[in-house]
Automatic annotation (TrEMBL):
Positions that bind Zn(2+): 119, 121, 129
The keyword Membrane is annotated on this UniProt entry: no
Residues that coordinate or bind 5-aminolevulinate 1: 204, 216
GO biological process terms, semicolon-separated: heme biosynthetic process
Matches recorded under InterPro entries: ALAD (IPR001731), ALAD_AS (IPR030656), Aldolase_TIM (IPR013785)
Cofactor requirements of the protein: Zn(2+)
Name recorded for this polypeptide: Delta-aminolevulinic acid dehydratase
EC number: 4.2.1.24
GO molecular function: porphobilinogen synthase activity; zinc ion binding
Catalytic activity: 2 5-aminolevulinate = porphobilinogen + 2 H2O + H(+)
Binding site for Mg(2+): 232
Gene name, Swiss-Prot/TrEMBL: hemB
Keywords: Heme biosynthesis, Lyase, Magnesium, Metal-binding, Porphyrin biosynthesis, Zinc
Task performed by this protein: Catalyzes an early step in the biosynthesis of tetrapyrroles. Binds two molecules of 5-aminolevulinate per subunit, each at a distinct site, and catalyzes their condensation to form porphobilinogen.
Length: 327
């Protein structure tokens, strides 16, 4: 048999396979999410997310040091306050938990790039992502609180803010507030395409942010919808977003690809808590090889078109990249 085209010719050796690899990634694209709580001397493992912790500010430095040692220089901070109220006032308090963590991290690790999640759900007594009018999340009054929160984060040392609330117009409100105060250089990474997903369960356990009633389907997106995701992404581009995020990652790679093909901005994807928990649970039973699954999941996200990857496996992935197992 005379075959001219033999695709296997470029698969024969690892050196060759790496040379012709279509999807490439490196540690500079990784962001590691972290949870910060009030109190002192606290480092408590999150039951539904083995290997992930809630840390008090005084314990944060040790954790950040391990992140940097792994080769990851970007983190996203989520705050868990002691006090919650109807208006989520802890979110924009200059002495709030995230604000304190930012100042501590910036002082001890100036080389670290600090990103903050901007939302209300961890701070409201009802667990929704904005202020309520009856049982309905009132969009427009929430915008001012989100903008105040973003500003307070930047004033405390955040290098980037990432609104995750899914209120209409929040990117424009935050951009205007930051620009008015002279922070025109601070970028916004928008959770532009955020679906109402069952993959968020462990995060809500970690951040104590489950809604007290109802659900978030009136503001997070219906997972049946594709065109709506593109509309949301394009709206946030118009409003001044600098990076567009799709969340979750694993079940939404088709959306990642379409967004990457549509917008003229960098695209991020967030591999969320449920994805992490499933891998950990299956690996603990010996049903999968965790390291190989983690690498394969990451490659699928980059292959789909994302250039930025938020993942609780960031430290491990950085190590696998050093070893040449992925990247």
């Amino acid at each position: 048999m005379e075959l001219v085209k033999r695709p296997r010719r470029i698969r024969g050796k690892e050196t060759l396979r790496r040379m012709v690899r279509e999807t490439r990634m490196d540690k500079s694209s990784l962001i590691y999410p972290m949870f910060v709580v009030e109190g002192t001397g606290i480092k408590e493992e999150i039951p539904s997310m083995p290997g992930q912790y809630r840390c008090s500010v005084d314990c944060l430095s040790r954790e950040l040091e391990t992140v940097l040692q792994a080769g990851v220089d970007k983190v996203m901070l989520f705050g868990i306050p002691d006090h919650k109220d109807e208006a989520g006032s802890g979110a924009y308090d200059e002495n709030g938990i995230v604000q304190k963590a930012l100042r501590e991290a910036k002082k001890n690790f100036p080389e670290l790039y600090l990103i903050t999640d901007v939302c209300m759900c961890e701070y409201t007594s009802h667990g929704h992502c904005g202020v309520l009018r009856g049982d309905y999340v009132d969009n427009d009054p929430t915008l001012e609180l989100l903008a105040r929160t973003a500003l307070s984060h930047v004033q405390a040392g955040a290098d980037m803010v990432a609104p995750s609330d899914m209120m209409d117009g929040r990117v424009a409100a935050i951009r205007q507030k930051l620009d008015e105060r002279g922070f025109v250089e601070v970028p916004i990474m928008s959770y532009a395409v955020k679906y109402a997903s069952s993959f968020y369960g462990p995060f809500r356990d970690a951040a104590e942010s489950a809604p007290a009633f109802g659900d978030r389907k009136s503001y997070q997106m219906d997972y049946h919808n594709r065109k709506e995701g593109l509309k949301e992404a394009l709206l946030d581009v118009e409003e001044g977003a600098d990076i567009i995020m799709v969340k979750p990652a694993m079940s939404y790679l088709d959306i990642v690809r379409e967004v990457a093909d549509t917008v003229n901005l960098p695209v991020a994807a967030y591999s969320v808590s449920g994805e992490y928990a499933m891998v950990k649970a299956a690996a603990s039973k010996g049903w999968i090889e965790e390291d190989k699954i983690v690498c394969e999941m990451a490659a699928s996200v980059y292959r789909a078109g994302a250039g930025i990857y938020l993942t609780y496996f960031a430290k491990e992935l950085a190590g696998y990249m050093d070893e040449g197992r992925i990247g």
